[in-house]
Amino acid sequence: MKVSDFRFDLPERLIAQYPLRERSASRLLHLERESGRWHDRRFADLPDLLEPGDLLVFNNTRVIPARLWARKESGGRVEIMIERVVDEREAVVQLRVNRKPRKGARLVVDDHAELEVLGREDEFWRLGVVAGPGWSALLDAVGHMPLPPYIEREDEASDAERYQTVYARVPGAVAAPTAGLHFDEDIFARLDEKGVEQAECTLHVGAGTFQPVRVEEVSEHRMHAEWLSVSADLVAAVNAAKSRGGRVVAVGTTAVRSLETAASSGELAPFEGDSRLFIHPGYRFRAVDAMVTNFHLPGSTLLMLVSAFAGRENVLAAYRHAVEAEYRFFSYGDAMFIS
Fold it and tell me: Measured in whole angstroms, how far is the alpha carbon of residue 130 from the centre of its chain?
């Protein structure tokens, strides 16, 4: 299977640059994966599409202010995007710079810190703090919200709240689990009233999620690693939902990858650590029965995951409809419910 099999035409005007004023005001395209039929709805309709006893699984990661700027010893400007913080003195990062720095080179972050290039790690760099506060304090002081590259504007004060789910509580992500951005307190109240259960996992989304697939054969792609945690309590909640006949509904592809990683041995079990699980057509799902997800980039691993779940032709047909109906795409865009 080729990466080109997952391409579709998307007018740039449909790429959402700002969120809607109200989180749950987004549109919702409901795709039935068995029949391939779709229905145009509002996100506020989601509780009506769920049943008492269903289990929603959310990713509770919290986005850190992971973008900052520094200057080289020569004076050149460097943009730093955190991939993950290893500890308070070391981080793995992307560097946007005219000329690649050498190992041992120093970078200065205004009057706040001095950094040292420690070496390469795959397509990323390792940076150490040699003077100044640790990474947490540094990012809190001068970091910016790491908006995706297809949002063609600088981050604004409002993004600190809107590029974050209302239930985010475990810091570590450098990109939001965007399917969760549509949930607000009213939606949660209606879910509780209906008897829909809720549970949480943690997956710290890395900047690698925006890296393009650089091979044409899908099977040759090597997935970037992301840290995740599936607790014993979540495993028990999933098993209880399935035993009572309820569906396990993953909120976002990150919740899907978390659950499926934890079930990779054939049976769901607690898991904590890095995952490189690459879900594409041909994959057999073990834990997830339905999902809430946003619309994804052409040729992306996220679109491949959704296609593995609902069928490539079904998904691409639904995407073509979404384009014709002028749904809003990507992180600040509209959502899908696939059942």
Answer: 31
β-pair partners for 59: 201
CATH ID of 67-142, from 3.30.390.60, 1.20.1510.10, 3.40.50.1950, 2.40.10.240:
2.40.10.240
Tell me the residue type at 27.
R
Domain ranges of the chain: 3-63+160-338, 67-142
pLDDT of residue 4: 95
Residue 211 has pLDDT above 80, yes or no: no
Instruction: Please give the Cα distance from 216 to 235 (Å, whole number).
Output: 36
Q: How far apart are CA 13 and CA 188, in angstroms?
A: 31
Query: Which pair of structure tokens corresponds to residue 308?
Result: 């593995």
pTM score > 0.85 for this model?
yes
Residue 154 pLDDT > 90: yes
CB atoms within 10 A of CB 37: 12
Q: Looking at the domain 3-63+160-338, which fold is it?
A: QueA-like (3.40.1780)
Contact at 8 Å (CB) between 209 and 175? Answer: yes
Would the pLDDT of 200 be above 80? Answer: yes
List, for residues 290-338, the tens digit of each pLDDT value.
999 999 999 999 999 999 999 999 999 999 999 999 999 999 999 999 9
Strands 271-275 and 226-230 turn out to be antiparallel
> In sequence order, what are the residues at sequence separation of 6 or more whose Cβ sits closer than 8 angstroms to the Cβ of residue 25?
42, 43, 44
Question: What is residue 208's predicted lDDT score, i.e. its pLDDT?
Answer: 74
Judging by DSSP bridges, how do beta strands 248-251 and 55-59 pair with one another? Answer: parallel
